[in-house]
Amino acid sequence: MRIAILSTFYPFRGGIAQYGNALFTALEQLGHNVKAFTFTRQYPNFLFPGSTQYVTDKDTTEQLQSEEVLDSINPITYYTTAKSIEKFAPDLVITQYWMSFFGPSLGTVAKLLKDKYKVISILHNVIPHESRVIDKPFTSYFLKQHHGFITMSASVDQDLKAFIPNASSLERPHPLYNHFGAIADKEASRKELGLQEDKKTLLFFGFIREYKGIDLLIQAFDELDDSYQLVIAGEVYGSFDVYQQLIDQNKNKDRIHCFNQYISDQEVSTYFSAADVCVLPYKSATQSGVTAVALHFELPIIATDVGGLKELVIPGKTGEIIYKAESKLIAKTIIEYFDKDTSEYSSNIKALKQEMSWDNFAKKLVNFSNTLPTPEVL
């Protein structure tokens, strides 16, 4: 099968680019002829809250070859992108959707292609975490241009059906990343990060945004005794000042270790290998790529009961669920987790890894696309 993927790819960085790269590789390894199409400009710089959109010299990201064609804010490129994809003559076109800002650009390209080729989208989010006035019209426009959807959680599937009740969809959780390397030695990893080697180590990992509840985790850490240490690793979107104030007021502030920076791929193993548990104190969510990274490193997860997080965080098996996003409940769940025999969590996660492989995900995606009618009969 000839498959075109229109998404963020190298030289852009971040979770969506990593996802696209892993999907490309998995489909190619199954014997498909795959071509990647990406942006010439993803976001205007003034709309991007992080330090840079691009891979830097510190990153060791695989330099996957893609055709840079789409400017998110230049409508002329919507048409030239569709023409470029037409030249490839795909049997299947795959887009990724994670933010309503991309509704007009990705949606228009899909609209121009859908009468000739099967067009499906992988939906990371339908309803964004931080709402804007553009969300409903842009998302509605985008969704209407596709024949089918891969939804990353039950909550995403429900959001899709709120827009298109009879939408053809396949619900598949986020596959486990496998490009971050092997699990490293815990003692050596803690030493490399300047952590105490004998503490129960909590990890918050990923971009720091308001909905992810890092403020709740910092407040919860104030409830814990001196046998714990907290690692916060990730680049903040916006200002870190409000979190720094909470840290400064925390009685355990000397055991809060902040790495407020973009964590390159080659550094990821050190952070997850140093931790005893990954904590996701999200106030809202659909799903999270961080769960896929944690499970790759066989690290149990403590997460709030929001969105699709509990689909992979199985209480007593792969982690624990906090039934409400409140600091005292987060602290209580952390304490209860460490009071248990945690040795079985890793073995349960190992059993999950094959089911959650990229190879399995790619096979199911292709099988799903084969069930969709060809454009001639739509």
Automatic annotation (TrEMBL):
Classification via InterPro entries? Glyco_trans_1 (IPR001296)
Q: Which SUPFAM superfamilies match?
A: UDP-Glycosyltransferase/glycogen phosphorylase (SSF53756)
Q: What class of enzyme is it?
A: transferase
Any one Gene Ontology MF annotation carried by this entry is: glycosyltransferase activity
What residue intervals traverse the membrane? none
Q: Does the keyword DNA-binding apply?
A: no
Query: What range(s) does the Glycosyl transferase family domain occupy?
Result: 185-344
- What keywords does the record list, in alphabetical order? Glycosyltransferase, Transferase
Q: What is its EC number?
A: 2.4.-.-
The protein's name: Glycosyltransferase
Q: Which organism is it from?
A: Flammeovirga yaeyamensis
Q: What is the lineage of its organism?
A: Bacteria, Pseudomonadati, Bacteroidota, Cytophagia, Cytophagales
